[in-house]
Specification:
seven-stranded antiparallel β-sheet; single chain; 44% strand; 6% helix; 30 strands; mainly beta
């Protein structure tokens, strides 16, 4: 009798999986950060909202609003290992709100409890008798023994480059007490780097969510760029017998409790190399991705011991009306409340060419899996419990990872007009 009951349970679960009914605590994050926005930049014609969505039948509905039309979304990330969603909002200027009243806010959401912390950040600070403005593009998240804080940078580029007063000042703000304190670039030793976004047209070249390091080729060390008289060594033991290949140093792409992924500007005419440190074994490995050398893009983000992203991505081919991209015929030339249309993104903001190849790589097993969606606007949204969730333009699928070595049959989870605006998912309560 027990055996029959177990078989019936397995059958029911299989039916639910086939119909894409699992899991019911899945949430979708929709939004398009305006990385170039600055409070002094004047009016922005198009403003998009950001929200957490949930599935209701065959549709997506708002579960929680993150950014409304009175604000500019400057930054949006989900930090899987820390169970935190972070958004940076700038208040939009309008006729009823003078520029003097504008400021920034950090929205910090814990996905385990859905508790929200709001931190107000001043748009300017006064130091050394002069005013400095917030450089929103230099926003980063730090972790010290699982205690999160935020790294901010304020600037005054009117000051002389070699004057007595710095043009850039680093700050740190702690969510527990909301206290804003002057810091220094050495705080980037504790940076949480979650990758370069996993879709080609949202590739982030900013300083935020990563750190660019300088080479100390004489000592074969990496250093954090700093104009201060401080110990600027970045605490990373390089691979044995490895010599820094470039005076440009390296970029920290991923840094989580399990791994650190670095780009040392190693590339050939057909590939780009990412080096990965497994923090548990202290062993280095490398991931060789197909890309046209200096014109390629490393598109990756992390989920624990998984690295995921898009392969065979390059800069160029900016105009989809002239350069046909795989799957382009399915695109709709219509924006949503959450983001511009893919056409508009390519026409006005982003330049890339992608073939639709997605990949994921496990740093422990060293298994690499890649497949072609035949849709340039594709990305992996999550790897969880041997299941991969990915977006193929306006549809989200899930598929099992079989024996950690190959992808099983994909099942449609949801398809809607909002899906092209979704670049992160999470599971409520986890």
């Amino acid at each position: 009798m027990m055996k029959k009951g177990l078989l019936f349970f397995i059958f029911i679960m299989a039916v639910l999986w086939t119909k894409g009914q699992l899991p019911d605590n899945i949430r979708f994050i929709a939004g398009y950060p305006n990385y170039e926005y600055d409070l002094a930049g004047g009016e922005i014609n198009e403003v998009y909202t950001a929200a957490i969505l949930k599935r209701q039948g065959d549709s997506l509905v708002q579960d929680m609003l993150l950014c409304d039309s009175l604000n500019i979304l400057s930054y949006l990330r989900y930090y899987y290992s820390n169970h935190i969603i972070t958004a940076l909002l700038a208040q939009k200027e309008n006729k009823d709100n003078s520029i003097a009243d504008l400021g920034y806010r950090i929205i910090m959401l814990d996905t385990r409890t859905m508790d929200t912390t709001i931190i107000v950040i001043p748009k300017t600070v006064s130091v050394y008798g002069v005013q400095y403005k917030l450089l929103s593009s230099a926003f980063s998240v730090l972790s010290d023994n699982e205690n999160l804080s935020y790294a901010l940078e304020y600037f005054n580029f009117d000051l002389p480059k070699k004057g007595s007063k710095p043009r850039l000042i680093d700050y740190n703000i702690n969510p527990s007490n909301h206290k804003l304190e002057i810091s220094n670039p050495i705080q980037f030793r504790k940076i949480i780097a979650s990758g370069s976004s996993a879709t080609p047209y949202l590739f982030n070249n900013r300083r935020g969510d990563g750190v660019i390091l300088k080479s100390d080729m004489e000592n074969n060390l990496l250093r954090i760029a700093s104009g201060l008289d401080v110990d600027s060594i970045y605490p990373l033991v390089l691979p044995k017998e490895f010599k820094l290949p470039s005076i440009y140093g390296a970029t920290v792409i991923i840094n989580n409790p399990k791994m650190e992924a670095m780009y040392f500007y190693e590339y050939t005419d057909s590939s780009m190399i990412c080096r990965i440190l497994n923090k548990k074994t202290q062993e280095w490995d490398k991931l060789d991705l197909i890309a046209p050398g200096s014109g390629g893009k490393l598109i990756m983000k992390d989920f624990g011991n998984w690295i995921v992203g898009c392969n065979r991505v390059s800069t160029g081919h900016p105009n989809p009306k002239v350069n046909q991209l795989p799957g382009q015929d399915a695109w709709k030339n219509q924006s949503t409340i959450y983001s511009p249309s893919t056409y508009k993104l390519l026409d006005e903001y982003e330049h890339f060419y992608a073939e639709g190849y997605l990949y994921f790589y496990n740093i422990d097993t060293k298994n690499y899996i890649e497949w072609n969606t035949k849709q340039a606007d594709s990305e992996i949204l999550m790897v969880r419990n041997d299941t991969v969730y990915y977006r193929k333009y306006d549809a989200i699928y899930m598929a099992p990872i079989i024996d950690g070595k190959k992808l099983g049959k994909s099942i449609l989870l949801i398809s809607s007009k909002e899906v092209p605006s979704i670049h992160f998912i999470f599971f409520k309560g986890e």
